[in-house]
Specification:
The chain is 82% helix and 0% strand. By secondary structure, the protein is mainly α. Helix 7 packs antiparallel against helix 8. The termini are far apart.
Length: 225
């Protein structure tokens, strides 16, 4: 433990910078991925047979895209996206470049979680809204999404933690953050203490995020009761 503490002190400035980079990549990618994945998940639900806007062609096409992207390992996805990433942000390496890959990896995952959350809603609630003359858009905005908020929040915690681990993996291909520190100062220099310190920091952040999201979801659950 003393060695780990000494390593932390020696690398504290580098670790702090890496922590900020990891948080930036994680929360930026979560925000952008939800901007894509949330409406995609809603479309997957409402185009199902027997739902608000059944459309077998759109539903099948969206499901195929989601399943295809989700099946690609993240490290391979980064490499595949390099030309697109370079075109979009001007570089294939760095934090902003990693965010592109993180968003593409997370959006289909989010879409499936949103689909699962919305499908858990009691269909009687939707039928009641229909009988009162609510439009499809009103049902989505005022019934389906509010009813599924606790489940969506728990899903967001899973996504955030997943993207944090992916951001560390992105350090292997030029991104910053704690992953880069673990690889450059730990693995490449055979300094296992640095690797252990970065792992401890990531575990601590994950624990804090999990606790925060769980408390938030529990509070909202009580309000809906």
């Amino acid at each position: 433990m003393q060695n780990l503490f000494n390593t932390f002190l020696d690398f504290r400035h580098t670790l702090w910078e890496g922590l900020l980079e990891t948080l930036y990549m994680t929360f930026a990618s979560v925000t952008l991925a939800y901007a894509i994945g949330l409406p995609l998940g809603v479309l997957l639900v409402v185009t199902q047979q027997g739902h608000l806007m059944p459309n077998a062609i759109i539903h099948t096409a969206l499901s195929g895209i989601v399943n295809s992207v989700r099946s690609i390992p993240f490290i391979i996805l980064i490499v595949l996206l390099m030309p697109f990433t370079r075109l979009l942000v001007g570089s294939a390496i760095g934090n902003n470049a990693a965010i592109v890959a993180l968003v593409v990896a997370a959006a289909p995952f989010i879409a499936r979680m949103v689909e699962t959350s919305l499908n858990e809603i009691d269909t009687g609630v939707i039928d009641a809204a229909k009988s009162m003359g609510a439009t499809n858009l009103q049902i989505i905005r005022k019934v389906m999404l509010p009813e599924s908020i606790p489940s969506l929040i728990r899903g967001c915690s899973i996504t955030t933690i997943m993207l944090m681990s992916f951001s560390a993996m992105a350090g292997a291909v030029g991104a910053g953050g704690l992953g880069r520190i673990a690889i450059r100062y730990g693995y490449q220099r055979f300094n296992t203490d640095v690797m252990f310190v970065t792992i401890i920091i990531i575990i601590a952040i994950v624990a804090i995020l999990q606790f925060t999201f769980n408390r938030l979801a529990a509070k909202i659950d009580k309000r809906l009761v």
